[in-house]
Amino acid sequence: MPDLSSFGHDAWWLMLAKAIGIFVFLVLTVLIGILAERKIMARMQYRIGPNRVGWHGALQSLADGVKLALKEGLTPLGVDKVLYLLAPIISVVPAIMAFAVIPMGPEVSVFGHRTPLQLTDLPVGVLYVLALASIGVYGIVLAGWSSGSTYPLLGGLRSTAQVISYEIAMGLSFAAVFLLSRTMSTSEIVGGQVHHWYILLVLPSFIIYAISMVGETNRAPFDLPEAEGELVGGFHTEYSSLKFAMFMLAEYVNMATVSALATTLFLGGWQAPWPISIWDGANSGWWPLLWFVAKMWTFLFVFFWLRTTLPRLRYDQFMSLGWKVLIPFALGWVMVVAVIREASRDSSEWTSSLILAGAGLVVAALLIVAIAKVVGGGRPAPPTAPPTPGAPFDPMAGGFPVPPLPGQVLPDLPDRQLPPAKEAPVV
């Protein structure tokens, strides 16, 4: 069992201070993240970006929040008012609660009290985060259902399909880390990466998780539940004012949560990277909080980079990637890790790690090839018989007008005759 003796002994005021600190940290991350995303996208697209409110536009996110708060909250006719108002709350509350078990640093001294930079921990801390991520999707589904509109409903159904597809692969990517660390506690997983980060040993799990977390947060190129070209705005089309702001808050908090979880599971958590780790004081005091935030923001930058760079996937590509590539590879990789760990039980830890890292490189290469094949391949054209030259062609045979193919001839249609205009009565 993991050692959780450091938790549960804090004074009530210290627990309250840590809870408020996590909330403030997430809100500031959202405000800075929105501004950083707009600035980064502008730089990548040779634009200026926000530069009016505050120094170089530094207060633009705050101004947008105030604007949303002061806008009139409209409730369309025909909505289920209870679920309509409850959906944004269901989305944002689990997103914030999931950060409670994320270790942000070691034990520090706060006014003479020794406490870890983590609100709490559980023997199944990682499963706790996964469960809250699953609950958060109910807010999106209920938002689409309660709006009483077609496009929000389709967006909610798409989000449900995404969660079902990508949480399976995400959970299987966690299993390889559990086999290495022999625990599901987030603080113990970080403690098990003192000598080497798990990304070096289970690279396929990291790749699968990195793709799954983008699909889990409905971010580009997997933002199909809110595809403006197909669904107007998706599940939040009928929302405005603070209710719309809560959905945006939940999206960016979820991005921070999955980035922090990736840091915890694969990048050593709050431990300093090499060569900074050579310094004796790098992993003590408040310095680890800096390393943790830097790693988390590295993942957030990748989120912004993907949105700027990649076009949105087709829905068939998106589902094929999850069911035909990520889930089979994740399941097979877990079996490979289990076999290697069992076969090298009598070997040294160094030998076992080398074998596992080599197998990970081979599987990761095959995984990347499979991903490129699914995402880069076009939709296969349905087999059709070649048109008979000179054969008459009915453009309305399918119920809507289509142009003729090469070799097809439009039939001679009589010209449309306009009805004779009526003469105005003489007054």
From TrEMBL:
<feature type="transmembrane region" description="Helical">
    <location>
        <begin position="164"/>
        <end position="184"/>
    </location>
</feature>
<dbReference type="GO" id="GO:0016655">
    <property type="term" value="F:oxidoreductase activity, acting on NAD(P)H, quinone or similar compound as acceptor"/>
</dbReference>
<keyword id="KW-1003">Cell membrane</keyword>
<dbReference type="InterPro" id="IPR018086">
    <property type="entry name" value="NADH_UbQ_OxRdtase_su1_CS"/>
</dbReference>
<comment type="similarity">
    <text>Belongs to the complex I subunit 1 family.</text>
</comment>
<feature type="transmembrane region" description="Helical">
    <location>
        <begin position="82"/>
        <end position="102"/>
    </location>
</feature>
<keyword id="KW-0874">Quinone</keyword>
<keyword id="KW-1133">Transmembrane helix</keyword>
<feature type="region of interest" description="Disordered">
    <location>
        <begin position="380"/>
        <end position="427"/>
    </location>
</feature>
<dbReference type="GO" id="GO:0048038">
    <property type="term" value="F:quinone binding"/>
</dbReference>
<dbReference type="Pfam" id="PF00146">
    <property type="entry name" value="NADHdh"/>
</dbReference>
<dbReference type="InterPro" id="IPR001694">
    <property type="entry name" value="NADH_UbQ_OxRdtase_su1/FPO"/>
</dbReference>
<feature type="transmembrane region" description="Helical">
    <location>
        <begin position="352"/>
        <end position="372"/>
    </location>
</feature>
<feature type="transmembrane region" description="Helical">
    <location>
        <begin position="196"/>
        <end position="215"/>
    </location>
</feature>
<comment type="function">
    <text>NDH-1 shuttles electrons from NADH, via FMN and iron-sulfur (Fe-S) centers, to quinones in the respiratory chain. The immediate electron acceptor for the enzyme in this species is believed to be ubiquinone. Couples the redox reaction to proton translocation (for every two electrons transferred, four hydrogen ions are translocated across the cytoplasmic membrane), and thus conserves the redox energy in a proton gradient. This subunit may bind ubiquinone.</text>
</comment>
<feature type="transmembrane region" description="Helical">
    <location>
        <begin position="122"/>
        <end position="143"/>
    </location>
</feature>
<comment type="subunit">
    <text>NDH-1 is composed of 14 different subunits. Subunits NuoA, H, J, K, L, M, N constitute the membrane sector of the complex.</text>
</comment>
<keyword id="KW-0472">Membrane</keyword>
<keyword id="KW-0560">Oxidoreductase</keyword>
<feature type="transmembrane region" description="Helical">
    <location>
        <begin position="12"/>
        <end position="36"/>
    </location>
</feature>
<keyword id="KW-0830">Ubiquinone</keyword>
<dbReference type="GO" id="GO:0003954">
    <property type="term" value="F:NADH dehydrogenase activity"/>
</dbReference>
<dbReference type="GO" id="GO:0005886">
    <property type="term" value="C:plasma membrane"/>
</dbReference>
<feature type="transmembrane region" description="Helical">
    <location>
        <begin position="285"/>
        <end position="306"/>
    </location>
</feature>
<protein>
    <recommendedName>
        <fullName>NADH-quinone oxidoreductase subunit H</fullName>
        <ecNumber>7.1.1.-</ecNumber>
    </recommendedName>
</protein>
<dbReference type="GO" id="GO:0009060">
    <property type="term" value="P:aerobic respiration"/>
</dbReference>
<feature type="compositionally biased region" description="Pro residues">
    <location>
        <begin position="380"/>
        <end position="392"/>
    </location>
</feature>
<keyword id="KW-0520">NAD</keyword>
<feature type="transmembrane region" description="Helical">
    <location>
        <begin position="318"/>
        <end position="340"/>
    </location>
</feature>
<keyword id="KW-1278">Translocase</keyword>
<feature type="transmembrane region" description="Helical">
    <location>
        <begin position="252"/>
        <end position="273"/>
    </location>
</feature>
<keyword id="KW-0812">Transmembrane</keyword>
